[in-house]
């Protein structure tokens, strides 16, 4: 072989090696950028401390970050615990249409391991419940598990068939599934703890702490938006007699039933709380004193119109309640929200006192800005 030919071969080899090196370098750059993107996204997930924020990160931010046409989160929630939290947080299911609740785990083909991520072609028979609003070409289905319990699935959908294939390495995807599952369990637990700390265990309605906090927020909102809000103090009449005559268990049953009857008359945006003992407080948003009077009257009638079944009382027990109502129409912007909140509570309490004094089973209204009270026709 002549040296010229040898040189030619060496040059070609060299060229080939350089091109392979170039490919490897490019792949390393791509991997590096994937790692960086994943790390930044992990941080975003981990720093989300509330349910809404976490869901937004997954369903709104993620498609953009990872160039995906569709991301859905499907949760298994047989005992309705997560949906109850959403209701309490006032997160409507329509707000996140890619947040889904599954009645049971999806049926996977025998080839798919239930705990392993699935990467590949979209298969309608199995994957349709995970993509109700979009038809992807390829998908990555990530089972989210914590301590051997399946929480649900994070499902990534792409318009490109080659985006997710069974041959792809799954390390990034698995890591993502682990981070998402931990974050999800963490925010659900946080929200549960908050819920327990703000709920009255006997009746299941909000407790005094929640109502005071919420009232402050609504007064401040009323000041900003110049919108009215009202407050009702509701106290069961002669409740001591129920306890004395039928026992505390029956008294508790009455409290639970009264809470239900009040709740029935309210909108989702209103708040009901047990303030203590046999006293409930209702916060009515966007409600003038006239609105409050109408709703209070409905609640009064709803409580006494039919008897409550309790042990020992044949034919049930007829219960009545007295109600005091006060309003901020709208809240004065020159006073502090805390000050206005206290005034509103005080006025409603005074109105309740008057309702009791003037015979019970009636609604009394506090005139805004004054200490005077007007009787409401029962
Ligand atoms: N069963 C039960 N009773 C409670 C609870 N909390 C407070 N009570 C009782 O509620 C009763 C309140 O009695 P009072 O404040 O005298 O009021 P009342 O008998 O309703 O009379 P008026 O309000 O004046 O109509 C007391 O007997 C308390 O023991 C509770 O969680 N469960």
Automatic annotation (TrEMBL):
Protein name: diguanylate cyclase
Catalysed reactions, semicolon-separated: 2 GTP = 3',3'-c-di-GMP + 2 diphosphate
Record-annotated GGDEF domain positions: 227-368
PANTHER family linked: DIGUANYLATE CYCLASE DGCM-RELATED (PTHR45138:SF9), REGULATORY COMPONENTS OF SENSORY TRANSDUCTION SYSTEM (PTHR45138)
EC number: 2.7.7.65
Pfam family name, one: DUF484
Top class in the EC scheme: transferase
């Amino acid at each position: 072989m002549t040296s010229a030919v040898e040189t030619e071969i060496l040059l070609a080899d060299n060229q080939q090696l350089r091109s392979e090196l170039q490919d490897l370098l490019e792949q390393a750059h791509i991997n590096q950028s994937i790692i960086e993107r994943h790390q930044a996204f992990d941080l975003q997930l981990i720093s989300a401390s509330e349910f809404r924020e976490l869901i937004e990160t997954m369903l709104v931010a993620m498609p953009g970050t990872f160039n995906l046409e569709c991301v859905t989160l499907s949760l298994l929630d047989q005992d309705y615990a997560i949906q109850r939290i959403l209701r309490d947080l006032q997160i409507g299911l329509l707000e996140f249409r890619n947040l889904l609740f599954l009645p049971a785990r999806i049926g996977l083909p025998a080839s798919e391991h239930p705990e392993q991520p699935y990467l590949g072609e979209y298969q309608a028979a199995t994957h349709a419940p995970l993509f109700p609003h979009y038809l992807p070409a390829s998908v990555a289905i990530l089972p989210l598990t914590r301590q051997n319990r399946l929480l649900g699935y994070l499902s990534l959908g792409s318009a490109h068939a080659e985006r997710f294939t069974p041959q792809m390495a799954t390390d990034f995807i698995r890591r993502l599934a682990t981070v998402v599952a931990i974050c999800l369990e963490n925010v659900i637990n946080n929200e549960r703890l908050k819920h327990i700390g703000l709920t009255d265990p006997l009746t299941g309605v909000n407790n005094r702490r929640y109502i005071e906090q919420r009232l402050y927020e609504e007064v401040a909102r009323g000041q900003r938006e110049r919108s009215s809000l009202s407050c009702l103090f509701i106290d069961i009449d002669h409740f001591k007699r129920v306890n004395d005559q039928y026992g505390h268990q029956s008294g508790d049953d009455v409290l639970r039933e009264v809470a239900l009857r009040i709740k029935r008359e309210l909108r989702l945006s209103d708040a009901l709380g047990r303030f203590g003992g046999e006293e409930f407080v209702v916060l009515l948003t966007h409600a003038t004193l006239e609105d409050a009077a109408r709703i209070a009257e409905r609640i009064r009638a709803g409580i006494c119109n039919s008897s409550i079944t309790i042990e020992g009382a044949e034919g049930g027990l007829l219960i009545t309640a007295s109600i005091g109502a006060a309003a901020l129409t709208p809240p004065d912007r020159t006073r502090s929200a805390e000050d206005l909140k206290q005034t509103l509570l005080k006025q409603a309490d005074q109105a309740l006192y008057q309702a009791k004094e003037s015979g019970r089973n009636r609604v009394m209204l506090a005139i805004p800005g004054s200490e005077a009270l007007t009787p409401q026709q029962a």
